Amino acid sequence: MKTMKEQLQQWKNTNPMPVEKKKTQKQKPKKKQPAKQPESFTERDMKYLMNTSMKTLRRGRGGAYK
Questions:
Q1: Helix (H) or strand (E) segment spanning residue 5
Q2: Can you give the pLDDT at residue 66?
Q3: Backbone phi and psi for residue 43, each to the nearest 5 degrees, phi listed first
Q4: What element of type H or E holds 45?
Q5: What sign results for the dihedral spanned by CA atoms 34, 36, 42, 47?
Q6: Gap between the Cα atoms of 1 and 7, Å rounded
Q7: Could you tell me which of 31, 35, 34, 53 has the C-alpha nearest to residue 44?
Q8: How confident is the model at residue 16, as a pLDDT?
């Protein structure tokens, strides 16, 4: 008795099926990425990042935080 693999091979030989060829795509040349500029922060940006200009909570009249 033939194995399943042998039976498939025999069936393929007796029943040729059209094989679709894969379409090849042209490869695009890779673009070189521009060099990154070093970040420069303004004084305002630095204060914002360090939270120095942030309002602080304090107790007002009646003991509530404002």
A1: helix 4-14
A2: 62
A3: -65, -35
A4: helix 43-49
A5: positive
A6: 10
A7: 53
A8: 83
